[in-house]
Structures are given as structure tokens and as C-alpha cells.
Recover the amino acids of this structure.
């Protein structure tokens, strides 16, 4: 079986140690970290997601797959995060209130750090007030919100509203993303930018910071 396929298969089975070793093997063979992430780790997680939807696997299986995914991304982290890149801006990021999914948010954080941005990670289940408080106190140029549930994506609208009420809307850009989020939803709530993946989110954040500098 091809190496990337093996990574995907082992991730689906939640074999964290094997995933870690296989990802390292793939790196050693010279495969790019982006390819390992997309065609190995994320491809496996997508299969898990589909099975979860059809009730073919349940929360415990998804959790062990998520743990395996994290072990794999830890190997890739130093390769995705370029050493010694000069910080170009400050961002706070979190998964919105009511939502505990953090794999995508962590990838966005990793990619942004790789571009030299300073990223304050607020974790998961983050209240809109916490995004605003951090942005004000830590002088962030960008607030990044991630949501994976259709029931929590509305919280992103509350973040935009609170930023307006706090009088910081013209000083801070608000970026949104996550599987159920779309460009039109972002426009509807008045966010500044939607991106579909972590790498594009990092590019967009750098562009915002450069424009604000
Ligand atoms: Co959850 N879950 N889950 N889950 N889970 C989904 C999201 C779901 C689509 C599964 C399904 O039904 N097919 C479904 C949501 C349905 C819906 O709302 N329409 C769902 C559900 C229902 C639930 C529970 C309610 C299940 C239950 O308890 N009955 C529950 C909710 C808990 C809660 O949050 N309150 C739940 C729980 C869990 C686990 C804890 C078991 C686990 C999370 C573990 C963890 O994150 N540490 C989990 C997982 C792993 C998933 C799936 C399988 C995988 C999500 C993931 O990590 N994908 C997911 C199915 C799926 O998405 N296929 C599912 C990989 C990750 C890299 O992708 O986060 O989309 P993603 O990030 C992408 C982009 O979206 C983007 O960048 C990344 C790629 O580069 N991105 C951004 C993300 N944030 C961004 C921000 C940006 C820009 C881009 O700018 C700021």
C-alpha cells in the first residue's frame, strides 16, 4: 500500500503511534508536508467524518482518530512553521462558543505562525466577549473565528456585532472559517474574510497585516 494511503488508513483506525511513524517516513522520503497533510492525514479524517455522519463510527472512534491526526501534525509542525520568520502582525484565534472542534483551528494557527504572525490561541468554546477583550488588550490586528457546527457558526456574527459595539471594528479585521462556513455567510454577518483552508487563511492574514502596517 502506498505510504500516504497507509497514513490515511491508520488514522481512520486511530493508530496514533503508527501515524506518527508513517508521517516521519513520508518526510524522510522527501514528500512535501502539504501533500502529507492533504493526501494522508486530512484524507483519512474525511473518511472518518463521512462514517460519523452515517453512524458507522461514533464519538470514541472519532476522538482516537483526532488524537492520531494531532500526532501526525506534530511531526509536520516544524516543517510548516518556517524558523526565524519575522513577526508581521498579531492575531487572536479560537473556536467559537459551544464548539469543541480544534483540529482545523490548530492548523490555521500553525500556518499563520509559519508566516511569522504572532498568534494568541484562545482555545475552544470561546465566548464572543473573550475575542473582543483579547483583541483590545493585546492590540491584535485580526480576530480569527473557527466553527465546525451549523449550530455554532452564528456566534461569529455576535463577534462582529460586539466588535462594532466596542468601537474597534475599524481597527480589527475579522476572519472566519470552518467546514460549514461559506463566503456568503461571512458577507451576511459582516466579517472581513472567509477562507476555506488553513494555508489561504494564513496568506489572507499576512495581506491584512501588511495593508495595516
Ligand atoms: Co464533530 N462534527 N461533533 N467531533 N466532527 C463534525 C463537524 C460533523 C460534520 C460530523 C458529521 O456529521 N459528518 C458534525 C457537524 C454537523 C453539523 O453541524 N452540520 C459533527 C457533530 C454533529 C459533532 C457532535 C455534535 C457529535 C455528538 O456529540 N453527537 C459533537 C459536538 C461537540 C461540540 O463541539 N460541542 C462532535 C464532537 C466531535 C469530537 C470531539 C469527537 C471530534 C473533535 C475532536 C477535536 O477537534 N479535538 C469531532 C470530529 C473530529 C469531527 C470530524 C469528523 C472532523 C473535524 C476535523 O477535525 N476535520 C467532523 C466531520 C468533518 O468535518 N468531515 C465532525 C479536519 C480539520 C482539519 O478540518 O476543522 O474543517 P476543519 O478545518 C479546515 C477548514 O475548515 C479550515 O482549515 C482547515 C483545513 O485547512 N478552517 C479554517 C477551519 N477553521 C478555520 C478558520 C479560518 C479559516 C479556515 O479563519 C479564521
Amino acid at each position: 500500500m502506498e505510504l500516504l494511503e497507509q497514513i490515511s488508513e491508520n488514522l481512520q483506525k486511530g493508530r496514533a503511534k503508527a501515524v506518527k511513524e508513517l508521517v516521519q517516513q513520508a518526510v524522510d522520503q522527501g514528500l512535501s508536508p502539504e501533500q502529507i497533510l492533504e493526501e494522508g492525514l486530512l484524507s483519512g479524517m474525511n473518511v472518518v467524518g463521512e462514517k460519523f455522519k452515517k453512524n458507522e463510527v461514533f464519538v470514541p472512534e472519532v476522538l482516537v482518530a483526532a488524537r492520531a491526526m494531532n500526532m501526525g501534525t506534530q511531526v509536520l509542525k516544524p516543517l510548516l512553521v518556517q524558523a526565524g520568520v519575522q513577526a508581521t502582525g498579531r492575531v487572536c484565534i479560537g473556536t467559537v462558543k459551544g464548539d469543541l472542534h480544534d483540529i482545523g483551528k490548530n492548523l490555521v494557527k500553525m500556518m499563520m505562525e509559519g508566516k511569522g504572525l504572532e498568534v494568541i490561541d484562545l482555545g475552544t468554546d470561546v465566548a464572543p466577549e473573550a475575542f473582543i477583550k483579547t483583541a483590545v488588550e493585546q492590540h491584535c490586528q485580526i480576530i480569527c473565528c473557527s466553527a465546525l457546527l451549523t449550530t455554532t457558526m452564528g456566534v461569529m456574527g455576535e463577534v462582529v456585532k460586539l466588535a462594532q459595539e466596542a468601537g474597534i471594528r475599524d481597527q480589527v479585521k475579522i476572519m472566519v472559517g470552518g467546514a460549514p462556513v461559506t463566503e456568503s455567510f461571512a458577507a451576511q454577518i459582516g466579517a472581513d474574510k472567509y477562507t476555506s483552508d488553513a494555508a489561504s487563511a494564513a496568506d489572507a492574514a499576512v495581506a491584512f497585516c501588511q495593508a495595516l502596517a
In short: The chain has a mean pLDDT of 94.
